[in-house]
Amino acid sequence: MVQSDARDVDAYLGEIEDDSRRAAMTRLRELCRAELAGFEEVMAYGMPGYVRAGGGQEIGLASQKQYISFYLMRPDVREAFAARLEGQNMGKGCLRFRSAAKVDYDLVRDLLRATAKEPGRIC
C-alpha cells in the first residue's frame, strides 16, 4: 500500500494484508497514542498522522511497498537523536524499516517522547 483513501486509521490498518506488518503498524499506533498526549490522530497524505493542537502534523506512519515508515517532521528532534539515528535507513524526515521484525520500538518511543515534550519547527 503506497497511499490509502481510508477515512480513518482503523480502516487504514484493515487494508494491510500482511499480518506481521499490520501488527507492527498497530503497535506503532499504540505507541503514538500513549506517548503523544494532546495530539489528534488524523489521516493525512494517505497515512496515519499525529497533530499537536494548534499546529501541524509532527508524526506520520506508513506501510509502504518495501518499508514500514515512521515520519518525524521535527528537524530538532532528528538532530538531537543524530547519534542514535546514525546507521539507520533514513530519508529526509523518514525512518524506514525493511520489515516488521526490524522496527526499533525503543527508538521510536524515545523519538515520540522527545516530540511530545515541547512544540518545535516542522519541516
How is this structure best described in words?
With 123 residues, this protein is an alpha+beta fold. The chain has one domain: Aspartate Aminotransferase, domain 1. Helices cover 38% and strands 24% of the residues. Helix 2 runs parallel beside helix 5. The protein is globular. The model has no long low-confidence stretch (mean pLDDT 92). InterPro entries: YdhG-like. This is DUF1801 domain-containing protein. It holds the Pfam family DUF1801.
Short description:
The protein is α+β, with helices and mostly antiparallel strands. Helices cover 38% and strands 24% of the residues. Pfam families: DUF1801.
CATH architecture: Alpha-Beta Complex
Highest CATH level, the class: Alpha Beta
The H/E string reads: HHEEEEHHEEH
CATH topology: Aspartate Aminotransferase, domain 1
Protein topology:
Elements: H1 9-15, H2 19-35, E1 39-44, E2 47-52, E3 57-63, E4 68-72, H3 75-80, H4 82-85, E5 89-90, E6 94-97, H5 105-117
Helix pairs in contact: 2-5
Q: What keywords describe this structure?
A:
YdhG-like; 38% helix; DUF1801 domain-containing protein; 123 residues; alpha+beta; 6-stranded antiparallel sheet; Aspartate Aminotransferase, domain 1
